[in-house]
Amino acid sequence: MTMPGKMKTAIALVALAALAAALWLSGERTAHAPRQDEFVIQPTRGRPERFETRFSAMGTDARVAVEAPSASAARPFLMAAAGAIESVETLMSTFREESEVSRLNRYGAEREVALSAETVTVLRTAREFSRLSEGAFDVTYAPLRTLWREAAGSGRVPDDELVRQTLRRVGWQKLEVGEGSGRFLESGMKVDLGGIAKGYAVDLAAEAMIEAGAEAGLVDVGGDIRLFGLPAGEQHWRIGVRSPEGGVDVTILQLHEAGVATSGDYARGFRIGDEWFSHIVDPRSGRPVEHMASVTVVAPDAMTADALSTTLSVVGAEPGLELVESLPEVECMLLVREPDGSLSRHLSSGFGRFLAE
To answer: What is the rounded CA–CA span in Å between residue 45 and residue 264?
Structure first.
């Protein structure tokens, strides 16, 4: 994979633009936060000065925590964060028939589909990551996702011709995003924002808490995390990354003011016959990625970490490390499955400073 000469500057601009959008949009949400009586707020175990709430969102588990003197003081911060996450899910979930993304998938090949500023922000950022990764990250991979889900259900690996036919309906260059609309240039195209929208929702939730006056907190949606401020009496947050091999083997990261995301083949992969397949599909070849057991990315914001964790899973260890070394304030840890079944660990040059002793 050849790295574009202006990669570093372009990625920095993507992250800054996304953060600016999150700050601006935090006051213009399109969905209402859950009712206060739906919230269960409790102290974090071993942390009486930290309060949290847990709920289901975006097809996974969400946890929001904030440093506060009491549950009542924490409530407005947690409510603001949950409302931001709900807003993104309402707009971008493919499981909601009336979401903007679902409407784009139904009608985008026929006409322009009106989109909110939030959805436009995510689609444009996704296109930029596609350009910078030379197609390794591509939200139009959705037809391939469907193909391999059906393969998992039927227990039959799709043949080369079926993969080629499906690839004709994939390609980020065939997704047009206007000022307030989107459309496809090929019939049968669809988008899936699962590799970037969770990170965006996490950033929006964190910015909502900061805007409401919170000094320190954590947002975690399915392993996409954003941290801000510092825990009481501490110099960093401690985040655990579990091993793909399971058990109790966990890598502890010490972080401050960061986004972090982990992608892996161990949680959502599937088996056909004797062969194990990752749920992460390479949008260039049309086939599930191989060998990358786990990718953890630390970046200035969760959306960047989210998109890059998927990207590195696709490009592999050597080009992945080369890419990360070219980016400002981005580090990674890659766990690769070797031919003998063992795992090898590869760290970017600055990742070691995040590892707890």
So the answer is: 28
- As a whole number of angstroms, the distance between CA 243 and CA 343 comes to 10
Per-residue pLDDT reduced to its tens digit, 50-77: 999 999 999 899 999 999 999 999 999 9
Does residue 302 fall inside a structural domain? yes
Tokens 């749920």 belong to residue: 279
Task: Tell me whether residue 115 is in a domain.
Answer: yes
Count of domains forming the chain? 1
Q: What pTM was computed for the model?
A: 0.88
H/E run at residue 213: none
CB neighbourhood size of 161 (10 A): 8
Residues in the chain: 357
Helix (H) or strand (E) holding 317: helix 317-325
Whether 126 is in a domain gets the answer yes
Alpha carbon separation from 91 to 31, 33, 88, 141, 265 (Å, rounded):
9, 14, 5, 19, 27
Residue carrying the six token digits 């990718």: 295
Q: Which single residue is written with the structure tokens 């994939």?
A: 170
Strands (E), 203-249: 217-221, 224-228, 237-242
**pLDDT greater than 50 at residue 5:** no
b/e for 56-69, b at 16 or more Cβ within 10 A?
A: ebbeeebbbbbbbe
Domain with residue 296: its CATH number is 3.10.520.10
- Which of 143, 172, 149 lies closest to 311, judged by CA? 172
Residues 23, 200, 309, 270: what is their CA dihedral angle, to the nearest 10 degrees? Answer: 170
Cα separation values, 157 from 148, 269, 356, Å: 8, 14, 42
HSE-CB at 335 with a 13 A cutoff on CA atoms is: 19
Provide the domain limits for residue 214. 7-354
| Per-residue pLDDT reduced to its tens digit, 280-323 | 999 999 999 988 889 999 999 999 999 999 999 999 999 999 99
